[in-house]
């Protein structure tokens, strides 16, 4: 089957138009074979915003502006259609603002919120109006200009005052000012005279004190001489020899205490020998027994008829309880 030239030209024209439309959309930032979602944002002013301007979140390009339309004839609000290139989660409480710069095109910045519910395709973002760069510069310059104007007005007033001082008609004002200064000087002089009198009294008191010191100079010299003699006697005394003697005595005392602790000598043995202590204890016990036996059975030791017949009971084998308790006490 033979295709006519007209058919070929028509097909080529259709293909060209299709490619032109696809290329135009591609240049606007639309991906041809990828599903994308769209959200909307309403602004009162979209100065500088054009189709294909970028949309960023945290500095990352996530979409483009694919449509700009007004809501009514009064242009109270302008709707931007934003096509998202990526499947991302945007919380519902997020908001969008237009960021402008001197060198680059305006960019739509989306500030993410913290809600757990996310925007769906077709939802509208909350927006915030951000002043442009020129508006910010103007807002910063206006206060400076106002301060400069106030400074110039103050300077102008100062110049007028200085000029009036040199006006011959204001000489009387100079005279009154000088008279006021004279009165102030007299008051100041009176205050200085009063303070001078007080200072003179203080100097008189100091003079009296130094005069008393001069009158008692002899006693002061005698006291210093006695103090000098005392320190000389202390310096000439044999303090070092006395200290050395004390050290020697302390050494001997330490030696004697060491011998007592080691059991050297009679006194050391007496303090440290347990056998001597036991012997003394047994001797004391035997003596108590003897005295108690003598007290209880005197006839056994003294044979006198006055006491009656001789006591034939056996001797005590130990001290009585009362003697033992008295000895313990």
In short:
The protein has helices at 5-27, 133-165, 171-215, 217-236, 239-262, 265-272, 274-296, 321-328; strands at 37-43, 54-57, 60-70, 78-84, 95-99, 107-111, 124-127. The protein is α/β, with parallel strands linked by helices.
Helix/strand layout:
Blueprint: H1 5-27, E1 37-43, E2 54-57, E3 60-70, E4 78-84, E5 95-99, E6 107-111, E7 124-127, H2 133-165, H3 171-215, H4 217-236, H5 239-262, H6 265-272, H7 274-296, H8 321-328
Parallel strand pairs: 1-7, 2-6, 5-7
Antiparallel strand pairs: 1-4, 2-3, 3-4, 5-6
Helix pairs in contact: 5-6
Please indicate the count of domains.
Answer: 5
Main sheet characteristics: 7 strands, mixed, barrel
Q: Which strands sit side by side, in order, in the main sheet? A: 1-4-3-2-6-5-7
Query: Which segments are poorly predicted (pLDDT under 50) over 5 or more consecutive residues?
Result: none
Order of helices and strands: HEEEEEEEHHHHHHH
**Total number of beta strands:** 7
- Rounded to the nearest angstrom, the radius of gyration is 63 Å
Please state roughly what percent of the residues sit in beta strands, choosing from under 5%, 5-15%, 15-25%, 25-35%, 35-45% or over 45%. 5-15%
End-to-end C-alpha gap: 154 Å
Number of helices: 8
Chain-averaged pLDDT: 76
Spatial shape: elongated
Secondary structure: helix percent: 55-70%
Content-based structural category = alpha/beta
